[in-house]
């Protein structure tokens, strides 16, 4: 696995990933769970 498609730099513990779109889904799941639990 590399940092860019077709690249040659491997992913390591210092690699940074954009997770903005994923965070929207996780936030909605947490809020839904909170509403269900009251």
Q: How would you describe this protein?
A:
By secondary structure, this protein is mostly helical. The chain has one domain. It has one helix at residues 20-37. It is rod-shaped, with a radius of gyration of 16 Å. It starts with 19 loop residues before the first helix and ends with a helix. The mean pLDDT is 90.
SSE layout:
Layout: H1 20-37
Name the descriptors:
1 helix; rod-shaped; 38 residues; mainly alpha
* Overall 3D shape: rod-shaped
For the secondary structure, the number of strands is: 0
First-last Cα distance: 42 Å
Order of helices and strands: H
Rg from alpha-carbon coordinates: 16 Å
Task: Report helical residue fraction.
Answer: 40-55%
Q: How many domains comprise the coordinates?
A: 1
Low-confidence stretches: none
Average pLDDT rating: 90
Which percent band covers the strand fraction?
A: under 5%
Structural class of the secondary elements?
A: mainly alpha
In DSSP terms (H or I, runs of 4 or more residues), the helix count works out at 1
Largest beta-sheet characterization: none
In short:
This protein has 1 helix and no strands. It has 38 residues and is mainly alpha-helical.
